[in-house]
Each structure stands twice: as C-alpha cells, then as structure tokens.
Amino acid sequence: MGRAVAGRPTGRHGGGARSPGRVAGRAAAPRGPERPAPTDDDVETDTHLASDWRVPDVEEERSPAADGDPGWLLGDDDRRTAPDDHDAVTELLAHDGPARRRRRYLWPGIAALLVLALVGGVFFARDLIGVFFPPDYEGPGTGRVVVEVADGASTSAIGEELARADVVASARAFGDAAEDDPNGRAIQPGFYELRRQMSAAGAVEALLDPASRVGRLEIRSGTQLDDTVGAGDAVVPGTLSLISRATCTVDEAGAERCASVDDLRAAMATADPAELGVPSWALEGVRRAEPNRRLEGLLAPGTYDLRPGIGAREALEQVLRESVPRLEAGGLVREAEARGVEPYDALIIGSLAEREGVQADFGKVAQVIYNRLAIPMRLQFDSTVNYPLDRQTLLTSPYDRATPGPYNTYLNFGLTPTPIGAVSSEALAAALDPTPGPWTYFVKCQPDGTSCFAVTVEEHDANRRLAQARGAY
C-alpha cells in the first residue's frame, strides 16, 4: 500500500484533506498502475502536480463586489473589456456626455416655444375679448377737439375718425352705440366740437345734438355781404358776419379765435379775383365793382361747413368755390347766351327780382326789368337805394332817392354795378326765363306780398290806391 501524501487522495473516493483549489464533490482520478511510494524529496514536486490536476473549464464563482471590482456596475461584457475601474467610469461618462449636451440645448428652445405660445394666447384672448367687448371710455370726456363727419361717411368711417381723434376708445364701440341709438344713422356731415375720451354712447348723443355743430353757416336768399337793419331795427347778419362766425374756434384755454369781418373785407379787396375763385364770366363785372362789394351775389344761398380756425382768404375761397357750381347748375351761362344777356347781368337781374317781389312774382318782375331796359327807362327800385344804406325796407325818403350813388336807380339808367344780395335758384331762373308780358310798372298790393302789374302810369296809380286801401303798405 502506498503512503498518503498531503493534498492527494488515498483511495477511490478520496478520504484525505482537500487541496485549496479543489471543488467539493469532484470525482477522483481513475486508478492506474501503482507507483512507488514517494520520498520526502518528492513531496514538493507532488504538490505542484496536484495543482495541475484542476479541470480547466471549471471556475469557482465569485462575487465581483467581493473582489472590489467596480465593473459589476457595467455588466459582464463591460467588466471583461474595461482595463481598470477608472477607464470604465470614464467610458460611461463619455457615452453620456452628448446626450447631456443635447438635453442642455433642448430645454431653452422648449421654454422659448412655451413663452411664445403664452404671449400668442394672451394676444388672441385680448382680440377675442375686443370682438365681444370693444374698448370704451367712461364719462363725458375732457378738453375740446373738432372732428369732421365727411359727406356720405358710413358709421364705421365716422367711428374710425373719432378713434383717431381719441374721442372714443374704439370704432367698434362707437358702431355698437350708434346701432343701439334709434337715430344713430341720422348723423349729418359737418364739423363737431366734442370732448376727448368720451364714452361711445356720449359721442353718438353729441353728434346728434345741433349745439355740437361748429363751422356751419347758412346763407339765405337776399342776404347782403354786410349786416343790415330789418323790421323793428333788428340787425340781420350779413354773409361776411356769417362766415366770420363759422371760422371761430376755442382753444384748450377757452380763448376764441376767428377770422374777423375786417379780415374778410381785406382779403376780398386785395386778393386777385381769379385767384380767389371768381368764374371767368363774372371777372369783368367784379373788377369794375367797388372792392368791398365785389363778391356780392356770387356767394350763393345754401349751407356751408368751414373748418373752425380757417383763415379769412381760405374761407372766402371755399365758399366761393362751392357757390359757383350752385349758380351754374341751372345752365346760367348757356341760358344767358341764348337770351343775349351776359351771365353776370342775369345774376344782377335775379338779385333785383329777389328783393322786389315774392317768389310767385319773380318772373313778372324780371320781365318788367327787361322791358324798362329796352325802352330805356330808369328802374326806380327802392331796394337799390336802400342797398348801400344797409336797409331791408322797401320804403325810401325823397332825400334818399335824390342822393347820388352808383346804386341809385332813380337817378341812373341801367342795372346796378353788382347784384344786391344772394340770388336764389328760383330768382335766377326767372331772370333767365321771365314771364312774358308788356308790364313796365308794379306795386305790392296784397297783404301776402304779391304785386299788381301795369302797363301805363294810369293803371299803376290805380293799383297804388288799391294797395293803400288794402293796407298792403
């Protein structure tokens, strides 16, 4: 029997102590021919041989953490390929770096998009609110501002003009207020003095109030350039006074500024008539007239809207520019030429008929004028004597009739140098197409102002007695 060697089996099942590298339960090596018992010198050699008996494909399982290997965090593949702990962690951070950078650049973009979305939402919400609840001021407003409502302007156009002038907060608010007012569509063109930052409803109410109108003047037929004295010594404003009043404006401090009557007279007397807007058919007569009367009769009856604060010359130019088409609307130039009379003379005849008779008699009065001019015979109209005296009455005194002057038709033959007042379209039409008849005399014989016409002096004297009996004058 051989001797037992440390770390080596002594039998089939190996009852001796295990070698440090042995795995429990491993089968013993097959028995071979018996070998001689080893000597003490062989023990060291056998020990090395015993270590070589390990099966090469069987390894003892150990926990990586037990060996202090950080590679267990990376997995088996990374642990085997990582050269050491430091390199493995470095590689992990290196792989993670680009992702971190992408996330770092991505978040500001997302934040910017969120801000834009928020701002857009705010504006959208504001616009949406503005559709249903348009901005509007509260209260009566402050200060003064003049705005113009153009002829034919729609409600929306008026609202936009008011919003530009800061009268209302929005055109939409004004439109809604105008729709709510039963008279909201009855706003007339012209200039209005309003307040800034008024409520839309207040602006509509102010535009419907005649007291808010500024810059408007109305020239009535027969009105002279100068103020006149009427019945009961009442002063009737002349055209120049009406224009002056229309130009007045009040500044923020409450001071009033106007183009005065004297300013208007100076502009009329010094400006070149053609540059002022006098039509070619009237230039000769206008240049021949006295400077302070040269525009008489050329400023037609009707309404005019002047911007408050306008200058004297500009005001005259505007009124004259708008008057000429009104005078020519009935074919003044064409009809005058057809009758063989100058258009300016027809205007003078129309003004005389306007002052001497009522509308129903315009045609007959105009015919009397043509008949007397044809004879020739002095017109002998009291209205022409009173014209330079700025009186509207028909009666004259012997002294007045005997006083020389270019407008005294008791002394002079022919027509007056200029018209003697504003000429209505009816009087002008009568001058262009008078009522045919042989009359040379007429006198107011009815309380309603109508006249009785006569051919002879005897008939005329009879009509005068009839008029006195009726209390016509």
Automatic annotation (TrEMBL):
- Relate the protein's function as given in its record: Functions as a peptidoglycan terminase that cleaves nascent peptidoglycan strands endolytically to terminate their elongation.
* Composition skew (Low complexity), residue ranges: 19-31
Provide the primary localization.
Answer: membrane
**What Pfam families does UniProt report for this protein, alphabetically?**
YceG
TM spans (from-to): 105-125
What domain of life does the native source organism fall in? Bacteria
Query: Which species?
Result: Actinomycetospora cinnamomea
Listed InterPro entries? MLTG-like
Checking HAMAP family in the record gives:
MltG
Its membrane topology is listed as: Single-pass membrane protein
How is this protein named in the record? Endolytic murein transglycosylase
Q: Gene3D superfamilies given for it?
A: Endolytic murein transglycosylase
Q: Return the Basic and acidic residues bias intervals.
A: 45-64
